[in-house]
Amino acid sequence: MKIEKLYSRYASIMPDFALFMQYIKKPLIPSLRINTLKAKREKILSLLNDLSLRQLPFYRDGFCLEGKYRLGNHMTHNLGLIYVQEVASMLPVILLDPQPGEVVMDLCAAPGSKTTQIAQMMDNKGLLVANDVNRKRMRGLIHNIKRCGLMNEVVISISGQKAHRVFSDYFDRVLIDAPCSAEGTIRKSKAVLSHWGHKNIERMSRLQIGLVMSGFRALRPGGTMVYSTCTIAPEENEMVLSYLLEKFTEAELLPIEIEKLKTRPGITHWQGVSFDERVKNCARILPQDNDTAPFFIARITKRGVYRGRMKYLGKIEFDGSVVASFVERFGVGQEQFRPYAIFKQRDTSFISTPEAFSFWDVKSTRKGLEFGKVYHREIKPDNDLVQLCALNATKNVVDMEEWQTKKFLKGELVKVGSVPGVEKGFVIVRYKNLPIAIGRYNGSEIKSAVKRERRVP
Q: Is the pLDDT of residue 13 over 90?
């Protein structure tokens, strides 16, 4: 199918359709989000000074790349300091506005771009339930959750259309970045041309209605739900929201306004069908307005009285021995671990927020972040934990030059000679005063403990 044929059906709802077609054929500008969970903004930007970046006018942590570079090959990507993410894809979480300490659900979480963005805005506090029904996609979700250093997440896999059966009036905020016909991805890949069709749009619309109905039921009164798609089809956008408004009198569509970003209102008529007038409060993001991918976003609240969730009354586990081993080996502050749960699963210790640890409603695939393992009384902490919790380490730390760091992150053995005050065994490798990973020191060389899938090409 040709691009013109696919998008011709939208000429009637775009006065500047010719301009739209010009932009839809252009490749996307590469963009990224910095991950301030692992390091301060200024420190990450200093590691990106070899790139020409332009900050997004509406989002402090979002940037566009000026020039060509494979961002996935950059050191900061493998270390989880940046997340390569399309500009329009950042908007749903900005509008969701999750806060530290809240209880939030990402209903269709894989591969994790918005999950990790939510956790960042929550400052890794409270509870973030990341759900995806597709277990094959869970591997990518977990990889990105770990790479970005999340400690407040619980990963589950249930049908999003049935989530309300478990979670009724439960979440402070719900994100539904719904599976869709993906018309908006054409600027990144032309794969949509091979599977697009009216039947697929109709099938997706039915799925989306099920998701938005279930997500709304799971939202507590007074909470906020954001529904988004990367498609233009009204059947998957305004029609879905119009159906929600018809079924729930307590549903209210909130107006959307993002400073320094142009949005267009939702449409109320399409091919002889009229939608609820309130869908004008939805936002259409079009490529010709901001040079982004097309996107659709709706922000919903639920009127009513909130009666609260049942509180967890059990014990919050805290394995003090593994914390003591880490503190003793690396000279870090013990008090930073007190707000968290430290628990063991098989031979690995994990760290999570108390809210994530005490989540019991559904069987989980994962909670929190790996703390590390103890081998014959010697602790091998996790690389991502070190980035989060060893900023002020005073013992068994080795500082490396840029050329050494690059070798280390490729998984190579690095010669450092005799380092005063550093004992043999596991050590923290630091670059530009930033802890980046764990290595094993034998008195003259350091063997990288960076896993193969996280090594820099």
A: yes
